[in-house]
Amino acid sequence: MKQCYAILAFILAWQINAFAQNPAGAPPGGAPRGNMPKGAGAPQIGRIYGKLIDATTKQPVEYASVAILRQRDSSLVTGMLTKSNGDFNFENMPFGPLLVRINFMGYKTIFKKVTVAPQAMDQDLGNIRIEPNSKTLNAVEVTGQKSAFQMGIDKKVFNVDRNLTSVGGTATDILKNVPAVNVDIDGNVKVRNASPTIFVDGKPSTLTLDQIPADAIESVELITNPSAKYDAEGMSGILNIVLKKNKKAGINGMIQGGIATGEKYNASGNINVRQDKLNVFANYSLNANRNWGNGTTNTQFFDQKGDISSFQDQYSDQVSRGKFQFGRFGLDYYLDNRNTLSISQNIVGGSFKNYEDLKTVSSDATHAPTATSLRNSVSEFGFNNYTTQVGWKHLFAKPNKEWTADFSWNKSNNHRDGNYNTDFTTVSGQDRPSTLQYQNTKGSSTFSTLQTDFVNPIGKNGKFETGLKATYRDYSSNYSVFDHDAAKGIDTFNTRLSNDYKYNEQVYAGYVNYSNTAGNFGYQLGLRAEQYVYAGESAGVKYKPTRAVPGLFPSVYLSQKLKNEQELQLNYSRRVNRPNFFQLIPYRDFTDPYNQREGNPNLKPEYTNSLEFSYAKTWKNHNFLASIYFRNTNNLISTYTEPIAGDTMLTRFVNANRNNSYGAELTVKNQVIKGWDITTNVNLFQTDLTIDNDKEKATNSGFSWLAKINSEVKLPWGLTFQQNFQYQADAIALPAGGGRGGGGGGGGFMMIPTSSQGKVKGFNTLDLAIKKDFLKSKALSVTLTWQDVYDSRRFGMDLATSSYSQLAYRKRESEILRLNVSYRFGKFDSQIFKRKNTKADNNMGDMQSF
Prior knowledge:
By secondary structure, the chain is mainly beta. It has 2 domains: 44-147, Immunoglobulins (Immunoglobulin-like, Sandwich), CATH 2.60.40.10; 250-428 and 443-473 and 500-547 and 554-827, TonB-dependent receptor, beta-barrel domain (Maltoporin, Chain A, Beta Barrel), CATH 2.40.170.20. 5% of the residues lie in helices and 62% in strands. The chain has 4 helices and 47 strands. It has a 22-stranded antiparallel β-barrel. Strands 8-9-14-15-12-13 form a 6-stranded mixed β-sheet, with no helix packed on it. The protein is elongated, with a radius of gyration of 30 Å. Mean pLDDT is 80; it is low at 18-41, 134-148, 737-754 and 832-850. This is Outer membrane receptor protein involved in Fe transport. Pfam families: CarbopepD_reg_2, OMP_b-brl_3, Plug. It comes from Chitinophaga skermanii. Residues 1-20 form the signal peptide. It is found in: Cell outer membrane.
């Protein structure tokens, strides 16, 4: 452990020292800023468009000559005449600085500078006003380029293509390597030791992280303190998973496949076709795997004097086999230069089979066994998920002014069947009658959102934003348990364990945001209103809908730019985390009879006030971002575990009086030398938790820290080597949000209660990957990944109260060696599907005289 501290301290000190020295060299990526490839060899996938109008009459100008020239030598790239409505549109534009020249008889000639770059391929020149009888304009407009790696104060965007260690995996593997994000053994996500809201393509989704293949993800956006524009749900901000969809002209795509130790396979492919007004894309992924897991739980029970009264030890071994498929297709239809219609469809399905042996040994105060049980379970789980999204985007002639409308509809179904056979042995070694249960669960969910947003620039730097959003979710589940009588050969319906429940929730929201600058000082003020309506039913008992009282969620952003690429920012926002149905229903889950769970219909929403102060500094080859944050939560939704009968534990959801978390986060990105990048993220935080109500009185507090280090080195012979190291210290146990599990699913792996009374044990893990590119175009790549090199990733929980203490560990297969092969193909040509057009060729010939 001391070695981990020493290594981390050395790397941080070395990187900060590198900043002070500020070595000269090329910026990340190898090429100097603003120096894009030139000439015929540069990729030709850009788009330049606009509309020409008469400055006096405000009418469209038809048949005006528009030419695209190279800035370096004014050589002609292409040209056209404006249409009857004044529109012009150029596809297949090369990367680099270009010059747009517009002239028409009787009018002055206009020149506009533009730059086509990978992050700025579409250049909208807006409504261009051409004036009669005047000299050539001297004013020009320049479009800049964005860095491929964006690390801002309000949002961090991580490019998944750079993450070699997650190739062939799932979204869980992606997020494990994202700075500031922690993922536990069950896929629960924490940011700064609290649960964020997870979006897919900017919208809520019912997909779990393990149902999204890594190969389908383009980037991950982390917004730690969202403005009023975003949903108020989520204690620690928003994680947005952006799926792949590009808009390159012509046809392009990729196919890949992989194999890993332990019977794991993956294959995927994606394709994109764009011509004229239509952009079509599709991707498909298949993942099949086998995973093993094991766990131990050791519990000591105390009498009223504080002496040990008994022990309970549990041992679990599991194997899971399964496969799932992910498909996505859609299109973008460009009605004209400023109106785009987008449609996409996701289809996901899978099936899994789990086997588990759970042995429980009860013993007296001397550790002499008093009873033993062995439960063998086999469960099958299947699901399908469909998501349809329709979006419309309108761009106004005024730069950055736009209006969007989006609709998303999601439908999912799942089923689980399980057989549970338990053998009992008494203290004398005699066998007691075995019990056999059959469990069946069927569930369905409908989740839809409708939203519209409007952005209008005001003045030189001002911006007004407003929008409306409606979210609707309907969920139902039928959980049936049957007891089998082997002697009589009959099955009896168990009313005590079975349950049938459903719920409906609706959220209606609206927001306004205004931002502006005064010199180097910037500000943004926002207010969001959300009205939440909930109604549920369990075992025939209906729960009344919540009162339709809107909640107000303000946000304030203040920023000050300093000299030498420095910036300060102070942010405040108010957020909410509402209890979900699984936390509310008073149903008790007996899946593990010694560790039971139960909801609480009296739970209240938790409200969080977040304050964050940040400092950002950019050097030529380095980025540094430091944040100090404070988070106060009232009515924190937590869990409380207590013994209820002998060696049986019950975990219930409760509202804590308050939870205060504060800490500091440092993110450092270095280019050590050309071809070697290191990104380091360190989060240090303190958590203070208080529970004080009629049934429970408890406090829990402690300091913890998390560190992630990513190193990527470009080697000769087309090799890239990547290392990802993570260390998590012991931390206060706060339950993950999102409503995963619960409600009587039955089966699966041994449960370890997550309680606010305990601490999560620390761990460290190291992932390695190396990639080799082949062919002149580097279109063929082979990646070898070694995950969790030391096989050290496991989940531990340490609970301690006056009536019991418990130490539990769970581990799933994490040391995995994976080989993946990918091949990229494509032709960046907007004319690839067109026949030869003589008229167009003649028009191009006429352009040579411009």
